[in-house]
């Protein structure tokens, strides 16, 4: 997909984003082609990552298990 195609996408910020609003990840779920998009809200014209729904679910499961915890 081209970046212009993301203009009508319904983005939402992560519930874990910092309160001051500068460290935000935004995601959007697309029914067709069945994928999840992610971007940095500080750079909305910048790169957009796309994941299949299976990849996104696998990532979220790993996050919930603490697989990426720094401590």
UniProtKB/TrEMBL annotation:
Source organism phylogeny: Bacteria, Bacillati, Actinomycetota, Actinomycetes, Streptosporangiales
Protein name: DUF397 domain-containing protein
Organism: Actinomadura chokoriensis
Residue span(s) of domain DUF397: 9-64
Pfam families membership: DUF397
InterPro entries to which the protein is assigned, alphabetical: DUF397
